[in-house]
Design brief:
Blueprint: E1 5-7, E2 13-15, E3 19-20, H1 26-39, E4 43-45, H2 53-63, E5 71-76, H3 83-97, E6 102-107, H4 120-131, E7 135-141, H5 145-154, E8 161-165, H6 173-182, E9 185-189, H7 201-210, H8 214-224, E10 228-229, H9 236-243, H10 252-259
Helix pairs in contact: 1-2, 1-9, 2-3, 3-4, 7-8
The structure holds NADPH dihydro-nicotinamide-adenine-dinucleotide phosphate.
């Protein structure tokens, strides 16, 4: 199975399909990620907030794979937005991962109601990490169009990615369009709506007709829209299922039928980025 690469605006490339580890218990993470690497995943999405970076590092070290063969993303935790805290937290991320660089480092949430609304100095600190080579690419997560506009107006450099909630029930069109217009790749978190795509009759109908599963149909829809995805599972069979999404295609009609499931804000499952203020 060959996973396509997507080229970022800084010239680096990212595998379009990866593996997410949100809610994977720290003590199980090394085992779970080892199995994902065995299945063939070469892109792991973790975060300081998930408390499982050490397990990710352990699995990569044990895999025998070259460091450059695995794309690793982590994210700055909400309590560490001030530049000195961000620098210390980033050092700790590299130590826990057991590596001298991450492939991608993100501001996890903009937290516009915290830190006096300042995420600009946080972004400038990530620019330092990229300049010194310890973060090959840098980006943001859960940024609304207004947050992207502020970065563009007040700072140098454009985020390589914006990782936001996107799935069939929440298409997040305005953010995806703002990303596209600025040359920012959209990473779609919760691409199978945390498992809920399996309850939707339209998705189940398409899956049955094509001989695929609902999760595969939802992932394929995201991939055909050009987004980067990294579904999470602790089950090996589901790791294989979620990885096996390059042997079929959705027609324009099926894509449109899934587009039609978008419930706008009612389909959002996570917090709204404008009001999310949890510092951890
Ligand atoms: P997903 O949409 O990936 O869904 C994960 C859930 O679906 C789990 O409960 C899993 O259960 C289940 N599942 C996985 N595969 C299948 C399958 N084939 N059939 C049926 N059920 C399945 O949700 P996530 O929230 O985990 O999002 C993916 C990743 O996105 C995260 O791991 C994280 O890396 C990132 N993320 C980023 C956020 C951000 O703020 N930047 C927020 C949330 C997520 P089980 O494990 O039991 O198989």
């Amino acid at each position: 199975m060959t996973v396509p690469n997507v080229t970022l605006n800084d010239g680096n490339t990212i595998p379009q399909l990866g593996f997410g580890v949100f809610q994977v218990p720290p003590a199980e993470t090394a085992d779970v990620v080892s199995r994902a690497l065995e299945v063939g995943y070469r892109h792991i999405d973790t975060a300081q907030m998930y408390r499982n970076e050490a397990g990710v590092g352990e699995a990569i070290a044990a895999s025998g794979l070259a460091r450059d063969d695995v794309f690793v993303t982590s994210k700055l935790n909400n309590g560490f937005h001030r530049p000195d805290d961000a620098r210390r937290a980033f050092d700790e991320t590299l130590t826990r991962l057991g590596t001298d660089h991450v492939d991608l480092f993100l501001i996890h949430w903009p937290l516009p109601t915290q830190y006096g609304g300042d995420f600009v100095s946080t972004w400038e600190t990530l620019v330092e990490f990229q300049r010194d080579g310890r973060a090959r690419s840098i980006g943001v997560s859960n940024f609304q169009p207004a947050h992207l506009e502020r970065l563009a107006a007040q700072t140098e450099g454009v985020p390589a990615v914006n990782q936001v909630e996107v799935h069939p029930f929440f298409g997040n069109a305005a953010v995806r369009e703002a990303n596209r217009a600025a040359g920012i790749v959209t990473e779609a978190w919760a691409p199978i709506a945390q498992g809920k795509v399996g309850d939707d009759p339209v998705i189940v109908g398409i899956a049955e007709r094509l001989g695929q599963t609902p999760a595969q149909v939802a992932l394929r829809w995201a991939l055909q829209r050009g987004d980067v995805v990294f579904p999470k599972t602790t089950h090996t069979e589901r790791m294989r299922e979620n990885f096996d999404v390059f042997g079929f295609e959705l027609s324009d009609e099926d894509m449109a039928a899934i587009d039609g499931l978008d419930r706008g804000e009612d389909g959002r499952q996570g917090p709204h980025p404008d009001t999310m203020d949890w510092l951890g």
